Amino acid sequence: QVQLVESGGGLVQAGGSLRLSCAASGRTFSSSVMGWFRQAPGKERELLTVISWSGGTLYYADSVKGRFTNSRDNAKATVYLQMNSLKLEDTAVYYCAAGGGGGSWSNWGQGTQVTVSS
Q1: Could you tell me the sign of the dihedral formed by the alpha carbons of 101, 2, 95, 19, in that order?
Q2: Which stretches in the chain have pLDDT values below 50?
Q3: Given phi > 0 = left and psi -120 to 50 = alpha, else beta, which region is 26?
């Protein structure tokens, strides 16, 4: 089991940057695929990016490709999402999740709100 806590969200102007962190506890973190998702009001949860246990990027959604960058530090049991050139449409609650195998997501953080203003 992996327990996850996101942080780093907040209010930012369009064009600005934020870095989200997802701190993990649990002995399986370093072997887990990790993902970042977001959910805007009235919309479905969207998968943004997936990072392998070794730090290789497995996936970026087209909506964030070239603007968002994932990374992880297994020694600190933390994954990061660097978000640049933020747009109004990036406003959402952002979640990290740990892969459960077979394409499933077994553990979720509580989410952190990101609001982009004009």
Answers
A1: negative
A2: none
A3: left
